[in-house]
Amino acid sequence: MPLLHVVISAHGYGHLSQIAPVINGLHGAVAGLDVTVQTEIPRALIEKRLDCPFRQLARTADIGMLMDGPTVIRWEESLRAYQSFHRDWDSHMEAQTAIFSANRPDLVLTDIPCLPLVAAKSLGIPAVAYSSLNWVDIIEVNERIADRMRPELAAMRDAYRQADCFIQPEPSMPMPWLERRCPVGPVMLVGENIRPRIDADLGLAPGDRLVLVSLGGIPLADRLECWPALPGVHWMIADSAARERDDVHLWHEAQYRFIDVLASADLVITKPGYGMFTEIAAVGLPALNIARPDWGESAVLEQWLGARTALRTIPLQQLLEGDIAAEVAGLLAAGRSAPTPPTGIAEAVALLQRYFGT
After folding, report:
1. Residue 111 belongs to what H/E stretch?
2. Could you tell me the pTM of the whole model?
3. Residue 245 in contact with residue 265, Cβ under 8 Å?
4. Cβ neighbours of 292 (radius 10 Å)
5. Buried b (16+ CB within 10 A) or exposed e, 37-51
6. What secondary structure, in 3-state letters, does 42-64 show?
7. Distances in Å between the alpha carbon of 181 and those of 1, 204, 328?
8. Is the CATH number 3.40.50.2000 carried by domain 3-187+343-356?
9. With 70 as the cut, is the pLDDT of residue 219 above it?
């Protein structure tokens, strides 16, 4: 059976959401494809994104970035973590090489650990990187930290260059130092509009507006009391168990798929992330965006989404203080834009099929 070994960073769940549609597409295109997923992302979350059977190997292969909540990088701790990882580079390489030697995959696909690319190439196994970003460019946004990581960054650059190609789903960071870049179109799931069902479940009146709040780790339970009460506007939120407002509603994955809630809303409040921004574009939804000033991918994502739908960006503190009435009103008035199709899925699958002789 043809074997695909996918290594996914557990830095955040966005790496999974970004690559899952391609894995699903490749599984449908390659008969009998056997999929191994190497990541420390919880299996239950992987099962929500992958439609195909898979084996999981719960072993990390990179550092990502250490975070203080979902919007602030812990730069000094990240620096120490990278230095420690690279001091043990040979032992990490030995362990990863042993995994590939035992399984002999036909293709190693990473989003975006770089060490497995080197391990695969040392065994003559084809290796492809896939992501809208890479850890070198994310780190180099902070010049002070990058200056103290020159040996580690050089090793990471060399590792990324081991890839047969680096597939860049739109929108991606430029990565001009990578010679074998393979740009493709946007890659994302497209939700189903289930608004009539949500309206019935929540008792919303005709003409009421639904604002989905999805901030991935920013707790809002103690902040909602200062959010504005706007006529006809209802807030839909996942992480507030202590709500005492008639205009605030909870949603659960057991009740609705997130992707469908997104497709059914009138506005979303969120933060920059590839999966979230492309899924917003897929349904043309207006968005209120929380700034991530030290995240190197933010400018690329914001420019791309802002060209496709109504987008406003505000500081996190402004959101927490509830000073958002004007932005919400303006974005609701702007309404939806034309949807952006996920053209990159078929393009990425076509690039990867060749490694399986199809």
Report:
1. strand 107-111
2. 0.94
3. no
4. 21
5. bbbebeeeebebbbe
6. CHHHHHHHCCCCCEEECCCCCCC
7. 29, 48, 39
8. yes
9. no
